[in-house]
Amino acid sequence: MDLSRHLRHFLVVAEELHFGHAAEVLGIAQPPLSQSIQRLERELGAELFDRSRRQIELTAAGRLLVGEARRFLAGEERLRTMMRQAGEGELGTLRVGVPPEIPAVTLHALLRRVTEDTPGLHLELHELTVPEQLRRLASARLDAGLVHHPVDTPGLLYGPVVQIPLGVVLPRTSPLALARSEPRPERSGSRPWAIELAELAGHDLVVFPRETSPAWYDHLLDVCRTKGFSPVRLRHARNPEFLLGLVLAGHGVAFEQEAMARREPRVIWRPLAGDPLRRGICVAWPERSAHPGAARFAVLAAEILAQHGTAGTPSTTQPTTQPTTPSLGPRPWSVVYAP
Fold it and tell me: I want to staple 224 with a disulfide (CB 3.0 to 4.6 A). Which of 135, 172, 229, 291 is the partner?
């Protein structure tokens, strides 16, 4: 029995108190409407209309049913709306992994943007390295994750990739930092205060452990060697605060985005000439049994990462099985905590 349909028929008859008029309102013939009301009465075990007079009237049971039927149908509509929103990723909880180095200002902007765009979706953030995220995505303990590139894990879909140019983080007292305290004439196309990778020769390098993101780790060191910087010693730091502490103590330089250096006023950030180091990042999620909100979140995250990483606007919003990288134009750079 289609209870909702019969209740809708009942409410129209209860309002019109005339089967012919009610049939016209519903756009059906009168006999099927009468049969619908009779079946509803049989199912509920009570007469709903007093038909003994010339004009029908509601019985006591019928009057009681009017309010209950309206609440029932409203509840059904709310349920349908809720399920539709859940199916479109607008409701529920989205479990998202984020790497430890994501700046607080970026996380704040991302959470605010998701709340504005989909207020019914709750983000449950987990601070995890990329390998930890990939393991949880594979075992369905995570719905989506912000991962660095390149990534070669099968069974994942990827949102738009944002390429974030990295600069060098130095102690404020470093000769390289002091030598760039004032703009200097640069070669054509380069930026004031830009540092060549080769100028870092003789320094140690503070970098994340290789197991955190093996492909990116190898790429970073290859670029350094190609550009004339072979670190004397590699010092590993998982936590961003530990990384900044090692730089501040003079135990090496580090490559990070500008926002990272804002955490510690005693270090300074400088761009690298030619932007040789760009860290790709995007949202990945399982291809099978994907959370309906993952693809939408991937687009929002790419927009926020592009804004806060001083990268270009992502070039695609369609999920793919391979990360896609947007083309980036030149962007202005500022000096963090300039004297």
Answer: 229
